[in-house]
DNA sequence: CGATAAACGAGACGGTACGTCGCGTCTTCTG
DNA sequence: CAGAAGACGCGACGTACCGTCTCGTTTATCG
């Protein structure tokens, strides 16, 4: 690739145009929504010609997809999360205002993509990777750590449980159109995740029954 | 309404056009997706004129919405469900092939609507009611019955738990684009729902550990 | 044709759009020239949508051609011309200010068409018929009348002579870009046409020489 | 010029590129016509970069114009023409197959220029000089020689008559799109030019009348 | 029972976005 | 530095779809 690129004569793609266009796209996407977004508008906002946009992305859809892909910035890697000592503490630590905001925005954009995925199955994986995987990955990591430290049973269905939070957040954003706020996320943690791994929230009495 | 209708002179609306158009809409929606769907195409398929469509629905969006609303046919009302005696039995009883198929189709169509909801918040409730509520309602009912019969604790978060299944199914269909098959639903039941209400699936040994 | 048209269902073409668009086209054509002319501009000026233009003419070229075809209005039919009794009188009578103006405008438009004809030979005849034939026809008529009244010899090459004036006017407009004014036309009449049919203009002495 | 050129540092312009580009331009011009001609195509055909083209000519129009200017090759200078002793002989001597061909080609290219002249009046003179003047000049020369030798009257309108042949050939090529063949040129000579200078072609009787 | 009025299939209308292509300029690398 | 290659900003092209508006025809109710 790098060789072929070096060998090819002619002016190089202006690397600064890509982010400029993507930023403009994200901006417009956020302001006017997917269908309100116009290539002409994006190009104009990026001070680019339409041809320059189409030289990079074959269609509006692909541009949108990559623009979304660039949203991945939400500092949510496992390492940056503290080990609070308890699963609940870890999960609650994920709920940071700016992280919520980021997820919210991603989901909003995702709304525009959903219909697109129907027609462009090849993009599913990318969307998947960018939008849902990050949070799922972290949750999975936290669950495994809880198992390792003996806090929860080892035979819980980690993979399925890790999806719960993302799924419900997506559902709430895309379909219910309600805000994914702290209270909602807490209710998932305390109402679903923790009970499912056998931790009864403290508000309830110590579960003598059964 | 009926009066005004009776008083108004002129030819009556041909009642048979409504379902014809809606059917065509659903057909096209399923085949080509939301953005691929064209009013001209729908009208042609229903052998109707465009004016006949627009006389009934103000826009493509509203047509799509009502078309979706007509998908509610999947005999999933609480009364038709047997009381198997156990929560797990009840939940598994919901998994019927044609019910799965129906949900699948609904979700597929829902995909096309998501981007629409951004611009037409007034449609959210309808979509909500038609697509997600039915299943959520049934699940909620089953959970309450389990509480009533003393099978599970009374302080579980019924409302949140009832959403789990629908949310995860939606996520799987719309975003992951994987089929919502029996295995997937079972893994939700046994991996999330039952554990969350304190029922450890039988496959695991009787909790000697811990 | 008329039958097929009557039988075809659907809204009829709005007959008033054709002239509106053609007029706008001619207007723009005259103002900005052929390549400066834009379909969008023409449509906007005619308060029409682009589709309405393209429904009638397959391309900018065809629109231009028909617009030109509509210029044929320059009241120059043989009947409207007086019989002055002499060929010179008849020819000079053709030189009327508004007739000159009309020819000028036609030629100007013709300028834009010339390059088009290369690629669309099928349009040559139309252009020919509209632009050059009228004047040629009249000149031919006048020559024949002169023959009939015995003013000139019967064996002059009427067909070729009839073309002289048009050709030279075209040449002057399109290539030399000089105005086709009265003096120029008179010089053609007195310097070429009349001598060629054996009439020596009076300014010269009565042909004692030779 | 030569000094400045010598003083300027850096690589010299590759003189061989000029004719290569011009030839390519003429080639494309002949094949696809003016509007079908693309700078990219010309450059590619000449194995040149676009910048190399634009370093030499400021625009497509100017390139075309100079390309046309290079067509002047058709050995038609007065000196190369024989003095046949009669005007008719001289005029007919101008009709040489390759000369016809050349004129034909020039005119074809001229077709593409006509629309250009509207927008670039400064090019009129060049076009004029290159395309029409050569033939006009020769004709004018022959007419004067005929006067000098006493073959025709001295008071004929030489300037106007000299234009006849070129004008009619242009008209025939550009507008009528018919070939300018020997027969056509002969008919101009015998039907217009010679009669106009008082020479009645031999086929007709000796013009006793008047 | 004829007039009136609305609904119907068909499709033209004014708009607007799409994705393509050409112009003339600018940038990169090679000789 | 010139030259080949080709990306850049710009803007017109011709297409497709939206939602509205006529057409001529069919069907129902009112006078």
| Low-pLDDT regions of chain A | 204-210
CATH topology of the largest domain in chain A: Tetracycline Repressor, domain 2
> Pair with the most extensive interface?
A-B, 54 and 51 residues
CATH class of the largest domain in chain A: Mainly Alpha
Report the sheet with the most strands of chain A, covering strand number, pairing sense and barrel closure. none
Basic shape of chain A: elongated
Strand content of chain A: under 5%
Structural class of chain A: mainly alpha
What string, H for helix and E for strand, traces the elements of chain A in order? HHHHHHHHHH
What percent of residues of chain A adopt helix (DSSP H or I)?
A: 55-70%
Number of helices of chain A: 10
Which properties best describe this structure?
elongated, 2 domains, homotetramer, mainly alpha, 210 residues, Tetracycline Repressor, domain 2, DNA-binding
Brief account:
4 copies of one chain form a homotetramer. Chain A is mainly alpha-helical.
Could you give the topology of this structure?
The structure is a homotetramer of 210-residue chains.
Chain A: H1 2-7, H2 17-32, H3 39-45, H4 50-56, H5 60-69, H6 87-93, H7 97-119, H8 124-148, H9 158-176, H10 182-196
The first copy, chain A, binds a DNA duplex (31 and 31 nucleotides) through residues 6, 8-14, 17, 38-40, 43, 47-52, 54-55, 58-60.
Structure characterization notes:
4 copies of one chain form a homotetramer. Chain A is mostly helical and 210 residues long. Chain A folds into 2 domains: 2-69, Tetracycline Repressor, domain 2, CATH 1.10.357.10; 78-196, Tetracycline Repressor, domain 2 (Orthogonal Bundle), CATH 1.10.357. Chain A is built from 10 helices and no strands. Chain A is elongated and about 65 Å long. Chain A starts with a helix and ends in a 14-residue tail after the last helix. The model of chain A is unreliable at 204-210 (pLDDT under 50). Chains A and B meet through helix 7, helix 8, helix 9 and helix 10 of A and helix 2, helix 7, helix 8, helix 9 and helix 10 of B. Chain A binds a DNA duplex (31 and 31 nucleotides) through residues 6, 8-14, 17, 38-40, 43, 47-52, 54-55, 58-60.
């Amino acid at each position: 690739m790098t060789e072929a690129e070096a060998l090819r004569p002619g002016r190089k793609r202006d690397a600064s145009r890509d982010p400029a266009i993507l930023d403009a796209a994200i901006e417009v996407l956020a302001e006017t929504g997917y269908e309100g977004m116009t290539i002409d508008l994006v190009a104009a906002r990026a001070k680019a010609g339409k041809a320059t946009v189409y030289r990079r992305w074959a269609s509006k859809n692909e541009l949108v997809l990559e623009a979304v892909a660039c949203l991945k910035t939400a500092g949510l890697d496992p390492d940056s999360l503290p080990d609070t000592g308890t699963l609940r503490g870890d999960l609650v630590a994920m709920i940071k205002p700016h992280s919520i905001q980021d997820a919210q925005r991603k989901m909003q954009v995702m709304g525009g993509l959903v219909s697109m995925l129907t027609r462009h199955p090849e993009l599913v994986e990318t969307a998947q990777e960018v939008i849902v995987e990050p949070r799922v990955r972290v949750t999975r990591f936290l669950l495994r750590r809880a198992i390792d430290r003996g806090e929860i049973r080892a035979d819980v269905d980690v993979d399925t449980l890790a999806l719960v939070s993302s799924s419900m957040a997506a559902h709430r954003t895309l379909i219910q159109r309600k805000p994914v706020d702290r209270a909602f996320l807490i209710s998932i943690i305390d109402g679903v995740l923790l009970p499912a791994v056998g931790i009864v929230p403290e508000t309830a009495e110590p579960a003598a029954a059964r």
